[in-house]
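User: Let's play a game. I give you a shape written as tokens, and you guess the letters that built it. Ready? Here's round one.
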């Protein structure tokens, strides 16, 4: 049986149910539910769109762009929140195990993108020894793809009470983060697959991403 990312994330939530203060858990659950309910799905990136032009800074210093990446083949972008996000520390290693080897074999690039500044974002790449690129966006790409959200008032109050402000964590100075998003872009700069989850404990499994890239490369499944 193949490994399921959403099973891993469900286990994270179950651990929180067992261990978190009831009020903290309620704020977390209600914020995620509200995002699902109120998300402007029409604004989200969709298959068939032209990919927005972008410039990203890889945490090891390389400058990445739509043009430079698509010149090498199809591109998979995974938008995530920040380096110390617990769910992201489950998702990116999962993609390293279950997605990256297949993409590499198909000649595709994989770039994990966060609004966090490179000096802080590098932590997640080093911690997990990620071989794919991890890049900083400062929310420009997230905005262009229509997938940004802002903390609700209860979440802002809870974070402030803990002495935290997500804008300090990311270095952006705002309460905005991207919803977990996967975008597959072909060599012509066209979006051929897009999946957005307003609930950050629900994310795209590897299999549909691999299928989307394989369809571009005309390599049959084994």
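Assistant: Ready! My guess for every position:
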């Amino acid at each position: 049986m193949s490994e399921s990312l959403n099973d891993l994330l469900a286990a994270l939530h179950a651990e929180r149910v067992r261990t978190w203060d009831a009020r903290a858990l309620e704020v977390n659950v209600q914020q995620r539910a509200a995002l699902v309910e109120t998300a402007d799905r029409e604004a989200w990136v969709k298959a068939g769109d032209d990919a927005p032009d972008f410039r990203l800074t890889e945490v090891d210093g390389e400058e990445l762009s739509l043009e430079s990446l698509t010149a090498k083949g199809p591109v998979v972008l995974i938008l995530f929140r920040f380096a110390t996000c617990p769910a992201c520390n489950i998702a990116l290693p999962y993609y390293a195990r279950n997605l990256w080897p297949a993409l590499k074999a198909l000649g595709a690039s994989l770039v994990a993108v966060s609004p966090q500044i490179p000096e802080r974002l590098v932590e997640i790449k080093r911690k997990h020894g990620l071989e794919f690129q991890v890049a900083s966006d400062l929310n420009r790409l997230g905005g262009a793809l229509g997938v940004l959200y802002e903390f609700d008032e209860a979440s802002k109050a809870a974070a402030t009470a803990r002495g935290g402000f997500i804008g300090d964590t990311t270095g952006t100075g705002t309460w905005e983060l991207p919803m977990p998003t996967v975008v597959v872009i072909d060599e012509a700069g066209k979006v051929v697959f897009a999946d957005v989850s307003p609930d950050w404990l629900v994310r795209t499994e590897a299999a549909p991403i691999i299928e989307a890239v394989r369809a571009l490369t005309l390599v049959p499944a084994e």
